[in-house]
């Protein structure tokens, strides 16, 4: 049994119910809207965040209707944010497939993203739990703020890991934090359990993003992006930040600033990537990623039902061992 099968095993029935609800939510009688939603529906990923919602609900109780609607609300918000991000980043691809804005245009992409945001809030309201509605709204704020911090950082002369982790917490980690916390809230777990669930999600989210950042240093057609794609967008991530601060090499710092301002050539970026690898940037990022994996595991209650604990452990390991 592979890790994904092990992860899904305790929630097979509930995950099937979620997928049915998800597909129903991405339909419309309007021909154009229905067409775009259908395209988005067909290219959905592995559902890692809804799976986390369901597993955390099972950790503290039994999956309820509120759990399914909370998971759907978060997944719709996440998907809408990706549609909007592709417009902001002027991306033509998402997971190796054409982005919505590449197939249609920016106006349609923004409007469809807005429609999905509204649908997300509708399902948050269906939970009947005000705390879940507030959680979804807060996540929307965090995602937007994270994008703004990241945009501001392109003109930053410093190479701060603190800023890097702040962006992660507001973006990728915020989704995992909200997913884990909403699972606990949906089954009325206690406040301590909800806080620990949120921290558990945050640790996973940070590890997930570091893994994504490591991918950017290697060519893999399956990822739908070439080596150094983040750097082509002016983004410097953990491997580079570590080396820049460790070596304090002025010529390397000057090149890094050119990358941030999107003035560096592809050849310069390729040279930068190799230098970061040689100076231990990848090894450092991997060690930090594994430390967050260990922190997440420490947050799991010792009294957890064995199959759920096993599934959540496999979930964390899948995040840091995945190949795309």
Automatic annotation (TrEMBL):
Q: Which Pfam families match?
A: polyprenyl_synt (PF00348)
PROSITE patterns (UniProt xref): POLYPRENYL_SYNTHASE_1, POLYPRENYL_SYNTHASE_2
Q: Does the keyword Kinase apply?
A: no
Question: Which InterPro entries does the entry mention?
Answer: Isoprenoid_synthase_dom_sf (IPR008949), Polyprenyl_synt (IPR000092), Polyprenyl_synt_CS (IPR033749)
Q: Which SUPFAM superfamilies match?
A: Terpenoid synthases (SSF48576)
Key words, A-Z:
Magnesium, Metal-binding, Transferase
Cofactor(s) in the UniProt record: Mg(2+)
Family membership: Belongs to the FPP/GGPP synthase family.
> What is the protein name for this chain?
Polyprenyl synthetase family protein
Source organism per entry reads Bacteroides caecicola
């Amino acid at each position: 049994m592979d890790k994904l099968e092990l992860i899904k095993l305790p929630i097979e029935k509930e995950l099937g119910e979620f997928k049915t609800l998800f597909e129903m939510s991405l339909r419309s009688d309007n021909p154009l809207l229905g067409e775009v939603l259908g395209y988005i529906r067909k290219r959905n990923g592995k559902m890692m965040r809804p799976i986390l919602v369901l597993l955390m609900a099972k950790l503290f109780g039994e999956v309820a209707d509120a759990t399914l609607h909370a998971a759907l609300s978060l997944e719709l918000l996440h998907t809408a944010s990706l549609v909007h991000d592709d417009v902001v980043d002027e991306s033509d691809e998402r997971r190796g497939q054409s982005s919505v804005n590449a197939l249609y245009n920016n106006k349609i992409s923004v409007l469809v993203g807005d429609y999905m945001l509204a649908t997300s809030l509708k399902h948050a309201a269906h939970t009947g739990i005000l705390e879940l509605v507030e959680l979804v709204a807060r996540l929307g704020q965090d995602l937007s703020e994270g994008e703004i911090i990241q945009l501001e950082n392109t003109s930053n002369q410093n190479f701060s890991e603190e800023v890097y982790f702040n962006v992660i917490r507001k973006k990728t980690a915020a989704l995992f934090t909200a997913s884990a916390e909403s699972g606990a809230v949906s089954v009325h777990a206690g406040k301590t359990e909800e806080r620990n669930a949120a921290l558990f999600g945050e640790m996973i989210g940070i590890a997930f993003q570091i893994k994504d950042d490591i991918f950017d240093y290697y060519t893999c057609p399956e990822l739908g992006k070439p080596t150094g794609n983040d750097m082509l967008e002016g983004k410097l991530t953990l491997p580079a930040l570590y080396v820049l601060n460790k070596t304090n090499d002025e010529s390397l710092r000057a090149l890094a600033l050119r990358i941030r301002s999107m003035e560096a050539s592809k050849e310069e970026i390729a040279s930068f990537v190799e230098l970061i690898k040689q100076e231990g940037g990848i090894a450092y990022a991997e060690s930090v990623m594994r430390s967050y994996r260990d922190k997440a595991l420490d947050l799991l209650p010792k009294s957890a039902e064995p199959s759920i604990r096993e599934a959540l452990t496999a979930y964390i390991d899948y995040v840091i061992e995945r190949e795309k």
